Amino acid sequence: MTDVKSCPDQEFRKWLSSRLIVDRALEPTDELYEPWYADVPGDPIDLLYQDIDLSEVESLNFISGFRGTGKTTELFRLRERLNTHGYYVAYANALDFLLPSEPVEITDLLLVLSGAFSEAIEKDFDVDPIKEGFWSRLVNFLTKTHVTLDGFDVKAGIPDTETSLNFKTSLKQIPSFRQQLREKLAPRLGELRSEVHKFFEFARKKIRAAKSDRTVVFIFDQFEQLHDTLDTQGRVAESVAMLMANHRADLQIPLMHLVFTVPPWLKFKLPDMRKIRLLYNVKLWNNNDNRTRSQSGWKVMRGVVQRRLTPDGMTRFFGKGTKTGSHKLADKLIEAAGGHFRDLILLLRETLLRTTSLPTTTAEVAAAIESLRASYLPIPLADAQWLNEIAVKRDCLLRDRSADSVQRMTFFLDTHCALILRNGEEWYDVHPLIRDEVSEILRRDQQEKAS
Hints:
Helix content is 50%, strand content 9%. It is α/β, with parallel strands linked by helices. Helix 2 runs parallel beside helix 3 (71-84), helix 12 runs parallel beside helix 14 (362-374) and helix 13 packs across helix 14 (362-374). The longest helix has 24 residues, at 295-318. It is globular and about 70 Å long.
């Protein structure tokens, strides 16, 4: 343990750097974890747990959150609570099996869900991946049903580890292979679904035999990371929307509980997706004209900073605190982060990189904030007009449910230009870093028009 009070400056900076890793998911037992949902009514993790526990036999739950809301960390909290109460929990990362910028279809997803679950339980149970793993079973299924794929060859009934790995890799990385598979399996969707259910039933029985009849929960994380690029022109979002609109029932695994992460914009695209548990930004201000400070939100974010630095580290890095125990420079970073955990950690790290001698200075903190502000710029006039309306009316003001409107609103939320907050009811606002910039863009536009 580093003595943060008396160690050399460079040693302190290295110690602090190790505690400011951006996008690191935390276990609830980690000393850096801030349990900010603990005092929040309608804790989404508690609602997920209650739904699973009350459903007893099987359930399908969706959770979502924009980048920076701590979704994976909170799913780890759900996993711990379920394990503590006698469930067996398998966890998988969708991005280990899917490319985030590629459209997805139901055949892809059924294969990926099964393969991901298979690999998750192989770590805990005596499952032979060659004889009992899903990828090998799938190769056998394709052989028995005489499904042939160009560029993929296997002797009937003798899949091996290399064959299974090649299948998984080809499914993720080779578009032509994936397209072939879709075309061949689409007419056999019923057979594929039956094969998938048979595998999950086999796996469920194996788990319950080894774990004293524990009920099984499968958490499928990071699926919400699927997104469009300039090249895909909305096809990824459309494929996810179509999948959820037409094949939601296919995602329910008999006699098991599935927790599925989905993109937050589905609430705009599919109004009937009412069961999405959404993680909100930490609310630093209230929904009123003056945006008065939310003390509970500030308490949470100050807690995040103090856990990273420790009380002694706060004094060493930010200097002497105020009479109330806060630190003015730390508060500047908290305010600039706009209620995002990720942005706050990023700002702390940027400040650390700029700090040449301790404690840090007002100029170094300002430079870190300016670097984050620059990442939001430039803002096109059309976007500034929409964002300004959001700031004034505190609503998303979605024009319609067209791909273009949903994609633009999703972009605002993904990039943190717009925020979803909760103050009893859900509301929207513009990130504090760019509110003045948005107003200035409109002022200059009006000035140009007047002249």
